Amino acid sequence: MAFLKQLIVFLLTLEARLVLWRHKPEIVAVTGNVGKTTTKDAVYAALSSFMSARKSEKSYNSELGVPLAILGSASGWNNPLAWIGVFVRGAVAMLQSHYPKLLVLEVGADRPGDILRVARWLRPHMVVMTSVPKMPVHVEFFDSPEALLREKCSLVKCMRSGGVVFVNGDDVRLLTACREEARQVITYGCDSTNDIQGSHEDIEYAHDVPKGLRFRINRSGASVPITISGVLGRAYVYAALAAAAVGENKGRDLVSVAEALLQWVPPPGRMRILEGTRGSTIIDDSYNASPEATLFALDALKKVRAKRRIAVLADMLELGKLSADAHRTVGKMAAECADLLITVGFRARLIAEGALDAGMGEYQIQQYEQFESERAGRELEKELSEGDVVLVKGSESMRMERVVREIMAEPLRAPELLVRQNKEWITR
């Protein structure tokens, strides 16, 4: 099986490189440890409004996913005939006369060397660096968080001559590392020292129900209001700022970027606001979980108006030796902002421990076993009431979208609104 995967990766990479050689698109590569997909989607939304562009679908960010994105194909999964179709479409892409002028590609790393293997042949024109916190996800197979940071920066090392790096300047460690590797660095973030700054972040409401996020983008004395509907959280502020930075580099003004993002529909499972049963509201962040992203999500829960705040949190995976401390840290934050904490999974028991240590009462905590996300949702639905706001978050394999399905007002719309609703995931 490993040989077949290596063969598929080799053939896909060969076709992708030939497509890049044939069509010579401009490449924007997005990496980091938090917010890659959201940022990639925001950059694409800002740029595709005025030029021919393609983005990585879903989270196609591996040595398999990046070539698929370049070829414009979906994965063949375990179907040999489907893979033959992928290779045929790749050959067609090499020969066709029309191809996007710009590619916005997500590049990730699970193990040392993952990014470098892709970056050596991808050689992007621009790199967007989101954030690499001190307690990152995917650190399990790295010696330290610093080793993961170096892996992310290998994408910058492989940029083409004259390339530009757009970096979240609020992450000082990441900014320092990028400045050591690149000549042109443009910063974005919420601190006033950044080239492009976000400010006045707030939540939009309709009849006391959260409807979206509003803030301002500031650059060289200019200030533009922006609204992103249907979502919450600081991650969307950072994503919009990155989009504004890249857009400006491509000749777009802040107003044009704001107008483009107004039409943007963020992907499922990433801080999406959904209507829950019995007059409740769901913050669906079930796509995946890292310590930093979970803390951001809890901060959003803390800020939202609610009669009762409920946090449903599951295991955060691939943290290695940082796992115990990370889960306890999340528990401490949950105690500060949730009236009810529900945990799913054996690692998430440490979230409950952290919450108890921070002063949360035992009566405020419910715990479920590893594969009981559906049961947790079913039992939560029975006790929801009008004005409740429920945050749902956990690592991909914890399948926390099943919690959301049990408590959403329109479960028949799950294929449209929830993450992991294709056949390959449903049958797992």
Automatic annotation (TrEMBL):
Keywords recorded for this protein, A-Z: ATP-binding, Ligase, Nucleotide-binding
Molecular-function GO term, any one: acid-amino acid ligase activity
Chain ranges of the Mur ligase central domain: 100-246
Gene3D superfamilies, per the entry: Mur ligase, C-terminal domain, Mur-like, catalytic domain
Residue ranges constituting the Mur ligase C-terminal domain according to the UniProt record: 269-395
Signal sequence extent: none
Name by which UniProt lists this protein: UDP-N-acetylmuramoyl-tripeptide--D-alanyl-D-alanine ligase
